[in-house]
Amino acid sequence: MSYYAKYFEYLNTISMKGKIYREWVLYPRLSAEVTGKCLDIGCGIGAFISYRTNTIGVDINHMCVEFCRSRELEAYEFNGSDLPFEESSFDSLILDNVLEHISEPSALLIDFARVLKPKGKLLVGVPGRKGYAGDPDHKVFYTRESLQLLLYEYGFDELNSFEMPFSGLSDKLKSHCVYSTFSLAH
Predict the structure, then answer these.
(1) Closest by Cα among 128, 126, 116 to 186
(2) I want to staple 63 with a disulfide (CB 3.0 to 4.6 A). Which of 8, 96, 120, 162 is the partner?
(3) Do β-strands 90-96 and 38-41 pair in parallel, antiparallel, or remain unpaired?
(4) 49 Cβ contact list (under 8 Å, min separation 6)
(5) What is the pLDDT of residues 9-63, one digit of tens each?
(6) 6 class by beta-carbon count within 10 Å (0-12 exposed, 13-18 middle, 19+ buried)
(7) Residues 168-182 as b or e (16 or more Cβ within 10 Å = b)
(8) Please, is 121 exposed, middle or buried when counting C-beta atoms within 10 Å of its C-beta (0-12, 13-18, 19+)?
C-alpha cells in the first residue's frame, strides 16, 4: 500500500469523540481567526472546508483531493510548494498540523505571501511535544517562539497565539496544539 493510501486510511479513522471535538470546539475557534475567502493547505479529507463556508482546500495526496471532490467540496492537488492560484487570491490561509511534516518550508512560505492579499491572515497549528513525538513522519518540532521567528523571516507578524484544547498540556495530550495567527506585513 502506498504512503498516500495509508495516510488517507489513517485520516478516516478519527473517532466520534474526535469528530465532536472538531465540530463543536476546535473548528469554531479556528474559524474565528480567519476571514473572507480562505485556503486550507493540507486539507486532508476536507473536514475544515466542509465546516467553514468560503473555504477551499489543497493537498498533496490525490486520494484526499478525490475524496473531497466526491463530497462536492472544492479541493485541488498541488506539489507541496507552488499553490495553483493567482497572486492575492485569499484573505486567509490555514495550515493545521502540516508545517511539522515539511523539513524545508521556504518555497511554500514564499508562496503563502504570494497568494495572500495584503494584510491577509495566516493561521498555523502545530502539535505539542506528545503529538509531535507520536508521529514518525514529523520532521520539525515548533514552539510558539520558533514558529514566530520562522514566519517573521517571510514577512509575517504574529497577531495572536493560543493553545487547544487547553494550555499546558503539551507533554500530556497527543491532540494538544499551539496555534498562531499571523498577518502579512505588507
Answers:
(1) 116
(2) 8
(3) parallel
(4) 40, 43, 55, 56, 57, 68, 73, 74, 75
(5) 888 888 999 899 999 999 999 999 999 999 999 999 999 999 999 999 999 999 9
(6) exposed
(7) ebbeebebbbbbbbb
(8) buried
Question: 55 forms bridges with which residues in the sheet?
Answer: 38
Torsion, Cα 126 101 81 125, to 10 degrees, reads -10
Q: Is 8 exposed, middle or buried (0-12, 13-18, 19+ CB in 10 A)?
A: buried
* Cα–Cα distance for residue pair 168/161, rounded to 1 Å: 13
For the chain, which domains are there? 35-184 (3.40.50.150)
Alpha-carbon distance of 163 to 173, in angstroms, equals: 12
Q: What is this structure's pTM? A: 0.95
Q: Which amino acid is at 34?
A: V
